[in-house]
Every structure is written in C-alpha cells, then in structure tokens.
Design brief:
mainly beta; OB fold (Dihydrolipoamide Acetyltransferase, E2P); 73 residues; 5-stranded mixed barrel
Length: 73
C-alpha cells in the first residue's frame, strides 16, 4: 500500500475527474474516498493502491484506489 501526499485537483478533461498532484510530481486519478476528498486545493495524505493497469473514463494516468485519507496542512 502506498502513502502519498499532495494536492487534490479537478481536471475537466474527458468529462471531468479528480486527481492528486503528488509532492513528487506524479499525477494520479483518484478512485474512491468520499465527498470530503473532492475539494480543489485540499492538501492530503492518501493511503491506497496505485493501479497502473486500470482503465477508466479519465484516461489520464495511473489510478489511485483510496483506502483512507487525511487532510494535512
């Protein structure tokens, strides 16, 4: 299980989706979580699994399957 920190961003590509702009430069499509995670500019730490093979409507990169998250400052 990966633990990543970054900022939540909304992308309007392909109908729109949420992604995590990680501190290390990666951009991952967010799958799961709850509405509390869907806030532009929210700084978070997410624990989850990165699925490089997932196919979805976003077609924007690897998918991060959220197990849990916490807001950080």
């Amino acid at each position: 299980m990966a633990k990543l920190r970054g900022v939540v961003c909304r992308s309007e590509l392909e109908g729109g989706f949420w992604e995590l702009a990680c501190d290390d430069g990666q951009r991952l499509v967010i799958a799961g979580g709850d509405r509390g995670l869907q806030k532009e500019g929210l700084r978070v730490e997410i624990e989850g699994r990165i699925d490089d093979d997932a196919m979805g409507i976003a077609m924007a990169g690897p998918t991060l399957e959220v197990k849990r998250y916490r807001v950080i400052s």
